[in-house]
Every structure is written in C-alpha cells, then in structure tokens.
Amino acid sequence: MMDDLSSLREKFLEELYRTGDLAGLEDLRVRYLGKKGLLTNQIKELGSLPADQRKQAGSVINETKAFVEREIGLKRAALKDKELREKFASESLDITLPGSYCAPGKLHPVTQVLNEITSIFISMGFSVEEGPEVELDYYNFEALNIPKDHPARDMQDTFYIENEIVMRTHTSPVQVRVMQKSKPPLKFIAPGKVYRCDADISHTPMFHQIEGLMVDEGISFSHLKAVLENFLRSFFGTGVPVRFRPSYFPFTEPSAEVDIGCIFCGGQGCKTCKGSGWIEILGAGMVNPKVFEMAGHNPEKYSGFAFGMGIERITMIKYSIDDIRLFFENDLRFLGQF
Ligand code: DAH
Q1: What angle do CA 116, 120, 122 make, to 5 degrees?
Q2: Which of 220, 227, 258, 299 has the fewest Cβ atoms within 10 Å of its own Cβ atom?
C-alpha cells in the first residue's frame, strides 16, 4: 500500500503539472479526492489491512490527502491569476493610439458677418424681426410706394409665384408688416434671404439682406446718421470715413446711399473702389409719409428712418472676395478659411 501511495503521489504531480486550466483542475480533483477518487479508494481499503499496519497507513494516506489538497489549492490560485491576466490583456486599450479625427464644423462666412452685424445693432437697442420669403406683391411693392409700372417689378428681376405672390426681392416688406401689427416706438432690424432673377460674378438668385427701421415722434436724419456711422465704425474700424450721398428709393424721402472710405487703398483709388476712393455699403433714408399711411400710422405724428444692406456684398468687402458665387459652391477649401 505504501508503494501504491508513493506512485499515486508521483502520478498526481505529473498530471497536475500538465493541467492548464481550471476545468482540467476540477477533473483532477474529482479523480483523486471525489467519492470514487483514487485516494478515497485507498482510505476505503484501510479496513482490509491488518490492524498493526492500519495506523501507519492511515496517517500516510491523510498526509497524502492533505498534500494533494494543498497542491490543488495552489494550482487553482495560480490558474485563476493567469486567467485574470489573460482577460486584462485581451481587454486592454492602447491609449497612445491616435483617435479618429472629426473635423469641427464652422459657421458660413455670410452667417458670421450676419451675426456680427446683428449683435452691433442689438447693442444699440434694436430688436430682431422676421418676415416671409414668399411675399405678397402688396408688401413687397405696393405698400412700399413702388407703383405697378416700376422697373423693379419686371419679370426679369422678380420671381413671381403667382400674379400677386412673389419671392421677396428685398427685406423692406418686413418694415410694413411690423408697422401694421405694432405701434411706434419701433426700433428693429430684419435679416433674411431675398431673391432676384439675376446671376453673375456679383449677383446670385438668392442672397441676404438686413433691413433696419426706427420710428418714433421726432426722429430725424441726424438719428439716421448717428446710428449708421456708429454701426459702420464698429464693423469696419473706428477711423473709417463715412459719406452720405443723395439717392432715390420709393419708400424713403429723402434717400441716401452710404459709402465708406475704401479700406483697401485708404481712399487713394484702387481696383476695388474703381478709382473713386469710396465703397458703397448700404441704402437708407427717412420713411416716406406714404409708407406710414399705408401701414396705418399718422405721418404728421411719427417720423423714422430705414436702411438696408446686402450681407454677401459686405462679406466680400470685409474679406476681399471677388466672386459672390464662391459663397454657394460649398467648397471646403474656401469655407475653411473663415
Ligand atoms: N430695399 C433696398 C434694396 O433692396 C435697400 C434699401 C434702401 C432699404 C433704402 C431701405 C432703405 O430700408 O431705406 O435695394
């Protein structure tokens, strides 16, 4: 029996050595220590030994059993440790790998300039209004004192939806819509898209304008001058020269076009200002009394000024862009520069 036990022990060690995972180890444990295990059988055989050998054999068996249990315990701990390490290794992240690049989006240059202009007027106490892009002929023309035979109504300039419905050709109709629903004092700007049947290096069928209107008792041309000079100097720089030139718009009287000193040549005359030293920025004037009447306000009581400017044009001047179509081609090499 002693020989049996010592070869059992050796056999066990050999098998233990070859066991590579926890399932195999459990198998091994059952084969030696289970109910019908090799060691358990040895214990059962103790009874058949002569009484004088029983005690010594019993203690060797117990010692072998304890040995087998201890070795299995140690191996189990080692295998668990190994499994855990393998699991960690398979789940590990290499945080030094470069991530996949996601290019951040940017606002379109026209949107950037529109936002900048809007915030200058907001800082002067103007609110922001909107109007429809599909507009009634009445608001786009009639109520702005643009008579039926005015050249601006020509099919060549205006997109007609139906006889009395157009794509608005300017943001000026918002003046009338706001005056109809609210009483003075009024002080707002109205940015938005406008449409004209025109396309070349400096015209696109859709572009953006910002309209402005200020109406109250006692508003004069000097208010107009102060507001627009303050705007132009905030936008183009404190020292920029500003010039008001007499002009004509059906909805203002008197009317003016407003120029700034050419920012490219400093007024010397260059290609951009066509040698004049001045660049035209916007149209403006005192609200025509007829417009007040059509909007339901008494022109004897109220006066006001209005102005309108093209955003693409101002963006082109600000960034020296010579072709308006670049804004609408969605070329990221162009758009990424702003
Ligand atoms: N609506 C004009 C245009 O599209 C621009 C304009 C000029 C607006 C004078 C005004 C103004 O409010 O007073 O050309």
Answers
A1: 115
A2: 220
Helix axes 22-33, 38-45, angle to 10 degrees: 10
pTM to 2 decimal places? 0.73
Burial label for 121, CB within 10 Å (0-12, 13-18, 19+), is buried
Pocket test residue of 153, 196, 214, 249 for ligand 1, highest count of atoms within 8 A of CB: 249
Q: What is the pLDDT of residues 24-72, one digit of tens each?
A: 999 999 999 999 988 888 888 888 888 888 888 888 889 999 999 999 9
CATH superfamily of 109-335: Bira Bifunctional Protein; Domain 2 (3.30.930.10)
Q: What pLDDT does 49 receive?
A: 86
Choose one of 121, 175, 187, 307 to mutate for the ligand 1 pocket test, by most ligand atoms within 8 angstroms of C-beta.
307
Cα(172) to ligand 1 centroid in Å equals 6
> Can you give the residue ranges of every domain in the chain?
2-90, 109-335
- pLDDT of 288: 98
pLDDT exceeds cutoff 80 at 302? yes
Pocket probe for ligand 1: among 126, 140, 150, 172, the residue whose CB has the most ligand atoms within 8 Å is 172
- Average pLDDT for residues 209-215, to the nearest whole number? 98
> Across the beta sheet with 242-249, what order do the strands follow?
127-128, 186-195, 206-216, 303-310, 278-287, 252-261, 242-249
